[in-house]
Amino acid sequence: MKTITITNIVKKVFFLTLFLSSLQIFAQEEEKKSKFTFSGSVDGYFRTNFNGLNKVETDEFGDIVALPQAPASSFANDPGFALGMVNLIAGYEGEKVGFVADLVFGPRGEDAVFASVAPNNIVNQLYVYWNVSEKVKLTFGNFNTYLGYEVISPAANFNYSTSYMFSYGPFSHTGLKADFVLSDKWSAMLAIMNPTDLTEFNPSSKYTLGAQIGYAGEKGSTYLNFLYGEQAPDSEATFQVDLTTGADISDTFYLGFNATYNDTDGVGFYGAALYPQLKTSESFAIGLRAEYFKELEDGGPVYGGDVSTVDFTLTGSYTVGDLTLKPELRLDSVSEEVFLDSDLDPTDNLASFVLATIYTF
Question: CA–CA distance from 55 to each of 67, 131, 148 (Å)?
Answer without folding.
Answer: 7, 52, 32
